[in-house]
């Protein structure tokens, strides 16, 4: 860090027109050189999807007076690779958000494009931070100036800290979820992710021609105390959640896992050994 | 299990027309009642994306003589919720695949629709299995009858075992990756997922009108011995990989993680406390 200007990629999954992207840019613009590249349309629930089957474009849009904003037809994860190609092979940090809607619980995290962008960065060894707010609409964020300014200060502080200290060992990314309002009384809690947040439901409907269709939606489950969902939705506090991308069972339980699966492997090998030679 | 007919959901992310789906169905059709519902078009790299912003349809297609095949405009994750609504609220197991292309390494797993479907099932408490094959094209699978028949037998054996024993504690899903060819000599190895598999690259190209565009592609990295990538690509063996969806740092290191993040939290709280009341 010392003596150099950090290169910061600012992105999101709600698209370039989201006020959350503007808020995130404002929070980090004085820290270093900030590049803004985001999807042209909302890519919510795109997860870590990468676009391999079609050409991607990057277009400059005249959106804000103080910085060039770039948009792409790709996903948040595509953005990381495009930014490395287009702006710099040496990004110091990737910040993603501020998402309209919190990204709490594993269920939501695994499908979140906001977190996906931070995760892709982490896979490339670039510190990744994801920021999300428990608001239903962008206007709620824009109209509440106190919350807007407080979120901005908090993001700035966290980015500076991570640029100095890195992501703590044992985690790959840090996800920060803000409650509906952030005031000087708002508390900050380090909280693990709950497993699920929504009971996903299916609404069965009929179109004007009488044909059946389906619409998915979720209803909140009772959150486990101490979890990210609880901190944000019940305590109205800020949840700081370190996340690991390592989906392997913990090293300490690996040999137990192998023992449990061995009988299955033996059955499969026996099946194969009995297979006829062709 | 005893005395009841297991309800099996068969899905994939390559779409209903993939021979891999047919292979998977053939492998499990005699085990119980198999429902086949899959995306109408390939949804590769869709991860755990859920479609909340548009209506979903389910259409029956006359594709195979021995079973009704249903297709949807949704993602593999949507399929789980649609199947519960449409077929049965009590699915005993969800099998996803056989994907054209292996799903090895965390990098690929996190964006895989094949694994996404199994993961969504697991979040709902339904055992989820993902099957993938290291082939470039579906025809390679269809034309190699020995491999086809062996994969079928192996899947059948694994599904029967999981119906009897469940997914081992500490894992949420099991992902199985087959090498290019599966013969009676092929070995089966329990292998953890590597972190990355591809160095993602960006090709910069120009269209006939001279406008720049980008195409993402990946080149294989040298795989770590013992990892799923190594087992499938170097040893040409079958990799059985138990995966956990818990992205929280291991419980044993949580307090250390909290200690590391506390200084950051203190800085943020100090920043907030100094904020002006509005």
UniProtKB/TrEMBL annotation, chains A, B:
Enzyme class of the recorded protein, top EC level: hydrolase
CC annotations in GO: cytoplasm
Cofactor(s) in the UniProt record: a divalent metal cation
Binding-site positions, a divalent metal cation: 13-14, 44, 99
Cofactor annotation remark: Binds 1 divalent metal cation per subunit.
UniProt xrefs under Pfam families: SurE (PF01975)
Enzyme Commission identifier(s): 3.1.3.5
Record flagged with keyword Methyltransferase: no
Keyword terms of this UniProt record: Cytoplasm, Hydrolase, Metal-binding, Nucleotide-binding
Occurrences of domain Survival protein SurE-like phosphatase/nucleotidase (ranges): 8-192
Enzymatic reactions: a ribonucleoside 5'-phosphate + H2O = a ribonucleoside + phosphate
Subcellular location, principal: cytoplasm
Subcellular location: Cytoplasm
GO molecular function, one term: nucleotide binding
Function: Nucleotidase that shows phosphatase activity on nucleoside 5'-monophosphates.
Family from the record: Belongs to the SurE nucleotidase family.
Protein name: 5'-nucleotidase SurE
Lineage: Archaea, Thermoproteota, Thermoprotei, Desulfurococcales, Pyrodictiaceae
């Amino acid at each position: 860090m010392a003596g150099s200007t950090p290169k910061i990629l600012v992105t999101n999954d709600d698209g370039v027109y989201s006020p959350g992207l503007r808020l995130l840019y404002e929070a980090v613009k004085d820290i270093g050189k900030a590049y803004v590249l985001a999807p042209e349309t909302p890519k919510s629930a795109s997860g870590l999807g990468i676009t391999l089957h079609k050409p991607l474009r990057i277009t400059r849009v005249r959106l804000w007076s103080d910085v060039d904003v770039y948009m792409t037809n790709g996903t948040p994860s595509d953005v990381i690779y495009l930014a490395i190609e287009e702006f710099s092979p040496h990004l110091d940090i990737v910040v993603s958000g501020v998402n309209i809607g919190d990204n709490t619980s594993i269920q939501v995290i695994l499908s979140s494009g906001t977190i996906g962008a931070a995760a892709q960065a982490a896979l490339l060894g670039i510190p990744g931070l994801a920021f999300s707010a428990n608001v239903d609409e962008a206007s709620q964020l824009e109209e509440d100036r106190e919350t807007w300014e407080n979120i901005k200060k908090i993001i700035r502080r966290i980015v500076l800290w991570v640029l100095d200290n890195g992501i703590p060992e044992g985690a790959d990314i840090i996800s920060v979820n803000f409650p509906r309002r952030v005031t000087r009384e708002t508390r900050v809690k380090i909280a693990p992710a709950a497993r699920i947040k929504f009971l996903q439901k299916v609404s069965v409907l009929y179109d004007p021609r009488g044909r059946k269709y389906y619409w998915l939606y979720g209803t909140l489950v009772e959150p486990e105390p101490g979890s990210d969902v609880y901190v944000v939705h019940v305590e109205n506090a800020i949840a700081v959640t370190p996340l690991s991308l390592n989906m392997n069972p913990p090293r300490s339980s690996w040999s137990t896992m192998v023992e449990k699966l061995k009988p299955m492997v033996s059955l499969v090998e026996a099946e194969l050994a009995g297979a006829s030679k062709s």
